[in-house]
Amino acid sequence: MAATQLTADLHPLLTEYVIKKLQKNRLTTVYSFVKVEVEQLLKITNLPAESIVLVKKHLIDQFAGRCQNAQSYPLQPAPSPLSTGVPSLDALLQGGGLLPGHIYELCGESGTGKTLLSLTMASNVVKQSGSMAYFIDTKCDFSGRKVQQILDSDDRKLSEQELGHAMARIRVERIFAPDLLVQTVEELATGRYVDEGTNLKLLIIDSLPSLWYLYQDAQSSVEPLGLLTKLICSLRKLAAQRAVAIVLINLTVRMVVEGMTEGKRKLCPNGNYLALGRYWESAPGTRLLLERHEHHPGSSARYHTVQVWKSNYLRSGERVIVRMTESGVRTFFGGTSSRLNPGRFFRSGGFGFLNITTGTSSGGAPSGASSSACSLRSIKSESCAKLHLLPNRHRPFL
């Protein structure tokens, strides 16, 4: 109101003649007009008192804020958590899974199962009718065959038609430039790429370092930090306005930099550093760390842990033990809880863990982003999966 100029189109009684007379008395804004007493406006405009009161009421209703009773607004039920498909991981996250409107980050060294765990999350979300998952692939690691294996490993066997519909609700887009990633997230916040009758429930970005490492030899950090700022602002807007759960993939790396002290950077529990620098450390709301462990004596299985590194609603240090098999992400209930101390677990040989699927990741060249239909029960190649694969946004970065 304070900056809105008085113009003749605001009310029929505010003619050009009246506006000029008001301007001569330094009444140029809506606020200055409203705060002046009616008696003074009578002398300036020569309008009847009733007309002045009517104009002021109209301007106040149009530009001023309103005080309303909160009881007049119906309470909206909180969105239900999105189950990851792994009960013990849902228990670790509390509430039953991923919270809509929250930003998560899966981090760890290369080969710790971050991509496979994200595929499991996406597969479980699209099982619900009308729910859609959007997967942004920056490394060509997305595997349609692995998604089919995860869906087929469910206790309730999906028919071929149900399997096709579920896989079609995963939208895949390959992006190879940071500015295009920011643009895509901004467009998702406006509802683009979402068909009628479907709700975007989950956004996965795999992964961020592969894009920002393009700036590792840059002489200035202004551009990469600026793009990171725009990205996190766009992600928070998307999460809050559309109640979307967001999962980001990041790396932990070992770095030796002269002059670096431990006080400047936060170390992972395993002694590694988080990629993307100190600036990114506080960006996600919850960060989960995936770690590999040695083989248990006498067993061919490989064990991993998923640990809460930082969170604004979970207790840091809580963890579950995971096992990598060929059958997909599943929880096995044994005699021991999965939320254990890893050292004690490996010494005792206890059970109660998650299974993270293994297998080689597959993808196409950056220029190939099409998929063809085939029998979903007997996929002959990775490119045959019935997934909605969006056109590439690949272009030369420099």
Automatic annotation (TrEMBL):
Keyword tags: ATP-binding, DNA damage, DNA recombination, DNA repair, DNA-binding, Nucleotide-binding, Nucleus
Q: Which InterPro entries match?
A: HRR_RAD51_Paralog, P-loop_NTPase, Rad51_C, Rad51D_C, RAD51D_N, RecA_ATP-bd
Tell me which positions the record assigns to the signal sequence: none
State the GO CC annotations: microtubule organizing center; Rad51B-Rad51C-Rad51D-XRCC2 complex; replication fork
Could you give a GO molecular-function term held by this entry? ATP-dependent DNA damage sensor activity
Identify one Pfam family in the record. Answer: Rad51
Give the subcellular location: Nucleus
Q: Quote the SUPFAM superfamilies the UniProt record gives.
A: P-loop containing nucleoside triphosphate hydrolases
Main location, first listed in the record? nucleus
Q: Which GO terms describe its biological process?
A: DNA strand invasion; double-strand break repair via homologous recombination; reciprocal meiotic recombination; telomere maintenance
Report the residue ranges that make up the RecA family profile domain in this protein. Answer: 78-252
Q: Which PROSITE patterns match?
A: RECA_2 (PS50162)
| Family membership | Belongs to the RecA family. RAD51 subfamily.
Name of the protein described by the UniProt record: RecA family profile 1 domain-containing protein
Organism equals Anopheles melas
